[in-house]
Write a structure and sequence with these properties.
Length: 398
C-alpha cells in the first residue's frame, strides 16, 4: 500500500549492498590484474632489490634510493661458479627525464637494461629492432621508444634513425615498441629503453643498479639461487648479520602474496566503510516499522481479539522488516553487478586497462546475508513493541 515509502526505506540497504558488491568485485579484478602483471616475469625469476626489507610506508620510500647494488655485484652474479643455477642476470636502472626532438618535449621513464629486458617483459617491437649485447658493451647511445613517445615527439613521421635528446645527450632511435595496455607496473607506451651502460653514464649519472633480476634455470632451483645470491652479496658487502642486509630478495610468489594481502586489506576496509550505509538503512527500516506499528494499532488489536498470539504478531512484523531488507539486498546485488560491469567497461574502453569483470559470488552471498541480518536486528524492536500491545487498548486507538 505504501510503495514509495517502502522504496525509500530500503534505498539505504540497496546503496550499501551495491557498494559492497562493487568494492569486492573491483578488489578481485584489481588483484587478478596486478598478479597477472607479476606473472609476466615468469615464475623462475628472483628480484634483488637494494635497501632493507621495507616494513612500513616510510621505509619503503627509502628503498628505491638505496645504492647498495654495484657493478661488482652484477659481474659476480654473472659468474657461474657463484650462482651455478642462474640462467640469466639482468640489471635495471630507471628514472624520469625530459626527452626532446626539435621543439617537442615529453617526460618519459628511462629504463636502462641489457638486451634481455625484451624477454623479461615480453616486449614486442612494432618498428625497427631491439639493441643487442654488443651495443650494451659499447655503451651505445641507442634507444627503443614506446608508442606514446613516438606519437608525442614525432606524430605520424617515422622515428627510426632520428635522435632524441636528454639534456645535451643524444640517443638514436632504433626501434618502436608495439602499443600495449596500461595495466602494467610500467607503462611502456611512455618509456624509453636503452642499454644500461649508456643510461647510467649519460642520463642518470649513477654507478649503481635499482634492480637486478636473476632468472633461475627452473622453479625448483629457486631456493638454491636465493641462497647463493644472499651469500655472495653478504660477502661482497662485508655483512655478517643477516639483520643488517642492505638488500632483500623477492620472488614472483612472495610479491604476489604481498599484493594479495594488500588488496584484501583494502577491500575489507572499503567494505567496512560501505557497510556504514547499511546501518543507516537499518535505522530507516526500524523507524518506518515503528511508524507502521502505530498506524496499524487497530489491526493488531483486532488480530489479537480473534486469537492471534504475541508470537503471531511478532512474526508478522519481523517478517515484513526482513522482507523489505531482503528485497533491498537483491536490488543491491543487481545494482552492484551492473555498476562493476560498467566500471570494468570504462576502464578497458577509455583507460586502456586490461581490467576483467569478475562477479563476486562471496559479495552476493554476503550482501543477501547481511541484508537479512539487518532486517532481523532492526526489525526486532518494532516487532516486539507490536506484539506487546494490549488488544483492548489497541481496539480503542483512534
Amino acid at each position: 500500500m505504501h510503495k514509495n515509502r517502502s522504496f525509500l526505506t530500503i534505498l539505504g540497504i540497496v546503496i550499501g549492498i551495491t557498494a559492497i558488491m562493487a568494492v569486492m568485485s573491483i578488489g578481485q579484478s584489481a588483484q587478478e590484474l596486478i598478479v597477472g602483471q607479476i606473472q609476466r616475469f615468469g615464475p623462475a625469476n628472483v628480484f634483488v632489490v637494494p635497501g632493507r626489507q621495507p616494513n612500513g610506508p616510510n621505509s619503503a620510500a627509502g628503498t628505491i634510493l638505496n645504492d647498495s647494488l654495484k657493478e661488482k655485484d652484477f659481474k659476480d652474479l654473472q659468474k657461474k661458479e657463484n650462482v651455478p643455477e642462474a640462467k640469466a642476470v639482468v640489471p635495471y636502472v630507471f628514472g624520469y627525464a625530459a626527452a626532446s626532438f626539435g621543439s617537442e618535449i615529453y617526460d618519459v621513464m628511462v629504463i636502462g637494461s641489457s638486451e634481455y629486458v625484451q624477454k623479461n617483459f615480453d616486449l614486442k617491437v612494432a618498428e625497427g629492432r631491439f639493441f643487442d649485447v654488443f651495443e650494451t658493451d659499447q655503451k651505445a647511445r641507442v634507444a627503443v621508444i614506446g608508442n606514446k613517445v613516438k606519437e608525442e615527439l614525432f606524430g605520424s613521421a617515422n622515428p627510426i634513425g632520428e635522435k632524441i635528446k636528454f639534456k645535451d645527450q643524444k640517443f638514436q632511435i632504433i626501434g618502436v615498441l608495439a602499443a600495449e595496455g596500461q595495466g602494467s607496473f610500467i607503462d611502456f607506451n611512455k618509456a624509453v629503453i636503452a642499454p644500461y651502460t649508456a643510461v647510467q653514464q649519460n642520463v642518470l649519472g649513477i654507478k649503481y643498479f635499482n634492480r637486478i633480476i636473476v632468472e633461475a634455470e627452473s622453479v625448483e632451483a629457486l631456493p638454491g639461487v636465493v641462497r647463493d645470491i644472499k651469500t655472495l652479496l653478504r660477502n661482497n658487502h662485508n655483512i655478517d648479520d643477516p639483520e643488517k642486509d642492505d638488500f632483500f630478495i623477492q620472488t614472483q610468489e612472495s610479491i604476489a602474496d604481498s599484493v594479495k594481502t594488500v588488496t584484501n586489506i583494502l577491500t575489507v576496509l572499503l567494505t567496512a566503510v560501505a557497510a556504514i550505509s547499511l546501518i543507516v538503512g537499518g535505522v530507516g527500516i526500524m523507524n518506518i516499522m515503528l511508524v507502521s506499528v502505530t498506524e496499524r494499532t487497530r489491526e493488531i488489536g483486532l488480530r489479537k481479539a480473534l486469537g492471534a498470539t504475541n508470537g503471531n504478531i511478532l512474526t508478522q512484523f519481523l517478517f515484513e522488516a526482513v522482507f523489505l531488507t531482503a528485497i533491498g539486498g537483491v536490488f543491491g546485488v543487481i545494482g552492484g553487478t551492473l555498476l562493476t560491469y560498467l566500471l570494468a567497461y570504462v576502464a578497458n574502453k577509455f583507460a586502456g586497462l586490461n581490467f576483467s569483470y569478475i562477479f563476486s559470488v562471496s559479495g552476493a552471498i554476503w550482501g543477501i546475508a547481511v541484508s537479512f541480518v539487518i532486517g532481523l536486528v532492526f526489525g526486532i524492536f518494532p516487532a516486539r513493541k507490536a506484539a506487546k500491545k494490549s488488544p483492548i487498548e489497541s481496539l480503542r486507538f483512534e
